[in-house]
UniProtKB/TrEMBL annotation:
<feature type="transmembrane region" description="Helical">
    <location>
        <begin position="339"/>
        <end position="357"/>
    </location>
</feature>
<feature type="transmembrane region" description="Helical">
    <location>
        <begin position="125"/>
        <end position="146"/>
    </location>
</feature>
<keyword id="KW-0472">Membrane</keyword>
<feature type="transmembrane region" description="Helical">
    <location>
        <begin position="204"/>
        <end position="223"/>
    </location>
</feature>
<feature type="transmembrane region" description="Helical">
    <location>
        <begin position="20"/>
        <end position="44"/>
    </location>
</feature>
<keyword id="KW-1133">Transmembrane helix</keyword>
<keyword id="KW-0012">Acyltransferase</keyword>
<feature type="transmembrane region" description="Helical">
    <location>
        <begin position="153"/>
        <end position="171"/>
    </location>
</feature>
<protein>
    <submittedName>
        <fullName>Transmembrane glucosamine N-acetyltransferase NagX</fullName>
        <ecNumber>2.3.1.3</ecNumber>
    </submittedName>
</protein>
<feature type="transmembrane region" description="Helical">
    <location>
        <begin position="96"/>
        <end position="113"/>
    </location>
</feature>
<feature type="transmembrane region" description="Helical">
    <location>
        <begin position="235"/>
        <end position="255"/>
    </location>
</feature>
<dbReference type="GO" id="GO:0047932">
    <property type="term" value="F:glucosamine N-acetyltransferase activity"/>
</dbReference>
<keyword id="KW-0808">Transferase</keyword>
<keyword id="KW-0812">Transmembrane</keyword>
<feature type="transmembrane region" description="Helical">
    <location>
        <begin position="261"/>
        <end position="285"/>
    </location>
</feature>
<feature type="transmembrane region" description="Helical">
    <location>
        <begin position="297"/>
        <end position="319"/>
    </location>
</feature>
<feature type="transmembrane region" description="Helical">
    <location>
        <begin position="56"/>
        <end position="76"/>
    </location>
</feature>
Length: 365
């Protein structure tokens, strides 16, 4: 699909920054630490690991940030279907359902990539996935935006966060086995769960609060559209909103822990706050200060984020990097060789994405 519409440069750059860590950026820290001994690389490596249960690291932000950015795009469009006849609404609904189904199918493909393939037995397929959650969060956020007013949208977001908290608190157990999420997934989720756990981190119940991550993006996108060209006003709103979410999330954490696996409401606030602040930073760097070289590197990744995400499961980039740069890597100390291969993995993917970007080819569901 060749894009003809104007794209928000900071949005594409931030999406690319988000995906950079997925395509191999996280692998840079261990060899850099071994070569330099700098503690900053040790800290960076620690932030590239998911928390085991309660808590928060930068790597936990990557997934909800992508959902947030899908909401920003929705908010920038600011479409409403209220009052339109069914004949005019049906094509929009059809596209939304098609997008959702494609993401669900691609999520299954991704789950069973890595050289294994989708099982022949439907009962052995993992249906829940990162892409499916992105699809459902965007779909329900779109339905809310298309059919309700702004105040109602805020009220729905608050109701989801509070309602989800009450559901989980009602079980009185936020453990992997005893949580409400585990009960629902064991009862109603078809197929298998991630690593056959009692719950699935992308399971049924925890998809509900992810809708709020998308709605937070909608609110940010609407703010960008409303104050287009008023840089100070835009930055002020994003920073204030992000700070308020972070404060609310940290305070809530004391009675309702931040937990990515359960996607707790406090986790939604923390990730939404970080997402808003990152959007403010990228808006400042790219759209205000015009750091085009900085943005071009990440935008090439961000404009085809779904494609590159699937590529991490279906293509052995390490093999390709080793085939091209293995000789150079072998001539260096172990840490240096590891770094060369890691950079090669990123470079090969970026060159392909840059080729698509330069030709205006953006592949999306």
């Amino acid at each position: 699909m060749k894009a003809k519409k104007q794209r928000l440069a900071s949005l594409d750059a931030l999406r690319g920054f988000d995906m950079f860590w997925i395509i191999g950026g996280e692998a840079l820290f261990p060899p850099l630490l071994a070569l330099s001994g700098w503690s900053v690389f040790a800290f960076g490596h620690s932030q590239m690991q998911h928390t085991e249960w309660n808590g928060f690291t930068f790597y936990d932000l990557i997934f909800p940030l992508f959902i947030f950015l899908s909401g920003v795009t929705l908010g920038l469009a600011s479409k409403s279907l209220r009052g339109l006849p069914l004949a005019e609404r049906k094509p929009v609904y059809g596209k939304a359902v098609k997008r959702l189904l494609i993401l669900v199918v691609l999520g299954i493909v991704y789950n069973h990539g890595w050289g294994t393939g989708i099982p022949a037995d439907p009962g052995e397929i993992r249906y829940a996935s990162v892409l499916a959650r992105i699809g459902f969060a965007w779909f329900f956020a779109a339905m809310i935006v298309w059919h309700t007013g702004v105040r109602t949208q805020y009220a729905i977001a608050v109701a989801i966060l509070l309602g989800y908290w009450l559901i989980q608190a009602g079980f009185g157990d936020l453990t992997p086995v005893g949580s409400a999420n585990a009960r629902v997934d064991q009862c109603c989720l078809p197929g298998i769960t991630f690593r056959n756990r009692a719950y699935d981190p992308e399971g049924l119940l925890s998809t509900i609060p992810a809708i709020v991550n998308a709605l937070m993006g909608v609110f940010a996108g609407r703010w960008l559209r409303r104050y287009q060209g008023q840089h100070g006003k835009i930055l002020q709103g994003l920073v204030f909103g992000g700070s308020a979410c972070l404060l609310g999330g940290f305070l809530w954490h004391w009675i309702y822990p931040v937990n990515k696996a359960l996607w707790t409401s406090s986790f939604v606030l923390i990730t939404s706050g970080c997402s808003l602040l990152l959007l403010a930073l990228f808006y400042l760097l790219v759209d205000v200060w015009q750091w085009r070289r900085f943005s071009a590197f990440f935008a090439a990744i961000g404009c085809n984020a779904i494609l590159v995400y699937l590529g991490t499961s279906l293509v052995n980039w390490s093999y390709s990097s080793q085939s091209l740069f293995g000789g150079i890597a072998a001539a260096l100390p172990e840490a240096g060789g590891t770094l060369v291969i890691a950079i090669g993995v990123i470079l090969l993917q970026w060159l392909l994405l840059r080729w698509l970007y330069k030709r205006g080819i953006f592949i999306s569901p």
